[in-house]
Specification:
The chain has 10 helices and 33 strands. By secondary structure, the chain is an alpha+beta fold. α1 packs antiparallel against α4, α4 packs antiparallel against α10 and α5 runs antiparallel to α6. The protein is elongated, with a radius of gyration of 40 Å.
Length: 585
């Protein structure tokens, strides 16, 4: 407790003067009484409660003295101190990655951090708060907010996003809010190395709230399966991240039944690799661990057996820019001699101009130009129809000098003037009726985008579109922009819709999902990254900036408003006492 205006201490002379006047005032007056009737009874009552009688006779005096003392007290502006957050502003960086779902003390680490945040909010003392959540793209939940009700509401709404934390991105993002102000940054995570903090700011204090207790975790580190002539073969790695030996039950199941159930013993801090062969044909395999640990998200993983074609074979006679376009998408590309294209047995996408092989190739392929006919010169603007191949590639600005004759019975999806430019066969082959040398297409950004769409189109003959990380944004050639796609879980629970050509965003929770549009279904999986399968013990610590004044860690709360309320009450009581005694007596 303290006083802000001790200079007004001199006003204490007023209640002292009144008190002295009370001592020297006339105590009684002589008065003749015509009768002493009931005198003894009055004296008995007075002796029985002398203090009450004294208070009744001097109530007005005590009320006035108390009021004057409170007035003096108010002039001194008394206050009490409470702990407050340091700095001119406060920033919360909240880790929303999957590892925040680890269970500790009968709750998740994320819920513990939310309680800590709500506790710190009561110490803001009017300072603005900024809340940043981690992820692939750090997001600002609140910006320089002072409304406590709104802050608490938003904190209570926080949820785990299951994305990688990408703490370095969040720290870089937070620095844009410092603005040379004294700032307190609170980081709510599981583990963060001190060396990762940008400690060059002298006016910033760093407060890290981490996971301080040991965690027991057994994880399915990797799981892969492939089809063989004798069935399905699977390879799985189990990791024990604790200091004690773990005994668990591993089960492998498909969409219908359990295929394998086996007890596994994993030594402390070791990884065990298991293989299983000759399992029955399945569309997907699910691996599960029956273990009592503190992190359940990495105890289940699913793989689809319908993997996309990931390799591209390019005819060596094709222009080098064709290979470059595919290589720019981080796709494995192999150059094949022209005479061996028709002999390929390995699964992959074939790119060639040997149109005569179209009947020999087992799967749909990409044909760029034709070697069986001659091209003719043409002039005109490229126009396209509504087709998945043009979802990201705009061909209106490219120049085409010549085209080959079209194929009867094939669907034309792009034209140059009145002549067909790109066609699609009934089984899905894509035919570009021009050589790369006859166009300026490779100079346009649409060229690699079109090749990417071709790869997606030709490798999507199956119903599996891939495995994604939580909330991953990834371009998907899903078809017409007018189509509506809906995402469901494997148990037919609706998630959300993708409308009018909207961007594909994977769900946040790991698991299996189905993408539906009319009668079309495509499967995909959402899986945790390897980083989110590792649980490490962290620490809670504080690093204060040199220019952060520690005296600012306390906030002053004035007693004056409460004193004024008491004074008002005293004035009412004085008025009532005076009224009962009579204003003229």
């Amino acid at each position: 407790m303290g006083f802000n205006q001790l200079v007004f201490l001199w006003t204490a002379i007023f209640p002292i003067a009144v008190l002295l006047y009370y001592f020297f005032r006339k105590k009684y007056t002589k008065q003749s009484v015509s009768s002493t009737l009931f005198w003894q009874e009055v004296m008995k009552e007075t002796k029985a409660s002398p203090y009450l009688q004294h208070l009744q006779r001097n109530a007005l005096f005590y009320l006035q003295m108390l009021a004057m003392i409170l007035l003096v007290f108010a002039l001194l502006q008394p206050f009490w101190k409470t702990k407050a957050l340091a700095g001119e502003q406060v920033i919360f960086i909240v880790d929303t990655s999957a590892t925040m779902e680890v269970n500790t003390n009968d709750t998740t680490l994320f819920e513990q951090h939310k309680k800590e945040m709500l506790s710190l909010i009561d110490q803001l003392s009017g300072k603005p708060l900024t809340v940043i959540t981690t992820g692939n793209q750090p997001a600002v939940l609140l910006r320089q907010e002072t409304n406590l009700n709104l802050i608490k509401s938003e904190i209570n709404k926080l949820e785990v996003s299951y994305e990688d934390e990408n703490m370095s991105k969040s720290l870089d993002f937070a620095q844009s809010f410092f603005q040379k102000k004294a700032t307190s940054v609170y980081i709510f995570t599981d583990e963060l190395d001190r060396q990762s903090l940008p400690l060059q700011y002298e006016n910033v204090s760093w407060n890290v709230e981490g996971q301080t207790s040991e965690v027991t975790n057994t994880s399915i580190k990797r799981f892969g399966a492939t089809k063989t002539s004798s069935g399905i073969s699977a390879l799985i790695q189990l990791e024990n991240q604790s200091n004690k030996e773990q005994v668990t039950t591993l089960s492998l199941s498909n969409e219908q039944k359990e295929l394998v159930k086996e007890n596994v013993t994993i030594p402390p801090n070791e990884t065990v690799t298991l293989s299983f062969d000759e399992m029955v044909e399945s569309s997907y395999l699910k691996a599960s661990l029956d273990v009592q640990d503190q992190y359940a998200l990495d105890n289940t993983i699913t793989v689809f057996m319908q993997d996309q074609l990931s390799k591209v074979f390019v005819d060596s006679s094709m222009h080098a820019l064709v290979r470059t376009a595919f290589q720019s998408m981080d796709i494995e590309v192999s150059s094949v001699p022209a005479e061996q294209v028709g002999l390929l047995k390995e699964e992959g996408i074939i790119v060639t101009n040997q149109f005569g092989l179209i009947e020999q190739l087992e799967s749909a392929s990409l044909f760029i130009g034709r070697n069986d006919v001659s091209a003719k010169e043409i002039n005109g603007v490229v126009q396209t129809t509504e087709h998945p191949l043009f979802s990201f590639a705009n061909l209106s600005d490219i120049y085409v000098s010549a085209v080959y004759p079209p194929i009867d019975g094939y669907t034309t999806i792009a034209t140059v003037g009145e002549e067909p430019f790109i066609q699609v066969s009934p089984r899905g082959d894509i035919i570009i009726l021009s050589d790369i040398q006859m166009t300026d297409w490779p100079l346009s950004p649409s060229f690699p985008l079109f090749m990417w769409s071709v790869k997606e189109q030709l490798s999507a003959g199956n119903t599996y579109i891939g495995t994604f990380s939580p909330n991953e944004r990834k371009p998907q050639s899903l078809g017409s922009a007018l189509n509506e796609w809906e995402i469901y879980t494997m148990d037919d629970s609706y998630e959300y819709s993708i409308e009018n050509g909207g961007a594909f965003i994977a769900p946040k929770k790991p698991g299996l999902y189905v993408l539906r549009s009319n009668d079309i279904e495509k499967n995909f999986a959402v899986a945790l990254s390897q980083k989110e399968k590792e649980i490490a013990k962290g620490a809670t610590y504080q690093l204060s900036g040199q220019q952060i004044d520690q005296l600012e860690n306390y906030d002053q709360h004035s007693f004056v408003p409460y004193i004024l309320v008491l004074l008002l009450l005293l004035f009412v009581m004085e008025w009532e006492v005076q009224r009962r005694r009579g204003f003229t007596s």
